[in-house]
Amino acid sequence: MTGGARPPAPSPASDARRPLVVGNWKMQMPLLRAAATARAIVQALPPLPDREVAVAPPFAALLPVAQALDGSPVLLAAQDLFWEDEGAYTGEISGPMLREAGARYVIVGHSERRRYLGETDRMISLKAQAALRAALRPIVCVGERQDDRVASRHERIVGEMLLRSLEGIPEEATPDLVVGYEPIWAIGTGCAASADDASEMHAALRDRLRSRFGASAARVRILYGGSVSEQNIDDLMSRPDVDGALVGGASLRPQSFARIAAFKPHA
Ligand code: PGA
Q1: From the alpha carbon of 189, which atom of ligand 1 is closest?
Q2: Which of 51, 95, 152, 174 is least buried, going by the fewest C-beta atoms within 10 A?
């Protein structure tokens, strides 16, 4: 199983790891509000030609949100997919179906799915491969628990989790691969990792990617997620290995999300 079809040719800027900000709406809003929220985000965003912005609504809202985003620069993402392309898999949704709905990105291995649905690194690696086969860019999520950080084993735990989750991903797929570093203790807690801590971890993850993909590791985007806000985004995005953000709670508020997407790194 390899990369298969690729998403449309990236613009030249993407060679330099074009920043990416993704709103993960989880299961947090009534379906009827999803399209209106998408429209409000499109309206609130200033022109941002140097970066990509995406929102990930729940499956049932993908089509109305795709319509709401039509003609705008905001891309559609999905929150999950199944690792087979079609078949008798009740309740699941495939990569080709997500593409048909207009998705360009798909989150895989979010810690909430690892925790509540029992997703393993092996399942996540199969999902990432399935995404690439369908010309979707996978956002592969990894992150440590609080006790791992307290015991200073977070770099090892997350580094190993990352390599297992990327099993079977070929080096040619690196321009389409996105990693989401999301410390579990920072998700939904209002207590984000400091820019220093995030930066240290992103550099460690880049090293792991280098051990696996060599020089092509420089093409993989690494996003930070966990209580990203209007207050901390500029600091986070000023760090060299932080290539974007995964935004949960704040992405439900169009003005906040627009401000986050319009981050301004310090000079
Ligand atoms: P949060 O969620 O921004 O609400 O912490 C982030 C995520 O789970 O992707």
Answers
A1: 5
A2: 152
Is 174 near ligand 1, meaning CB less than 6 Å away? no
Q: Which residues are catalytic?
A: 110, 182
Which residues span the domain enclosing 174?
A: 17-261
Q: Which residue out of 29, 80, 111, 246 has the highest number of ligand 1 atoms within 8 Å of its CB and is therefore the one to mutate?
A: 246
CATH of the domain at 216: 3.20.20.70
Whether residue 161 lies inside any domain: the answer is yes
Report yes or no: 36 and 3 within 8 Å, Cβ to Cβ: no
User: For the chain, how many structural domains are there in total?
Assistant: 1
> Which atom of ligand 1 lies closest to the CA of 247?
3
| Mean of pLDDT over the chain | 94
Q: Can you give the pLDDT at residue 16? A: 78
User: Of 228, 253, 259, 260, which is best to mutate to test ligand 1, by the most ligand atoms within 8 angstroms of its C-beta?
Assistant: 228
d(CA 169, CA 125) in angstroms, rounded, equals 8
226 lines ligand 1 (CB under 6 A): yes
Return the pLDDT at 4: 43
* Residue 24 CB less than 6 A away from ligand 1: yes
44-79 pLDDT, tens digit per residue, is 999 999 999 999 999 999 999 999 999 999 999 999
Burial of 27 (0-12, 13-18, 19+ CB in 10 A): exposed
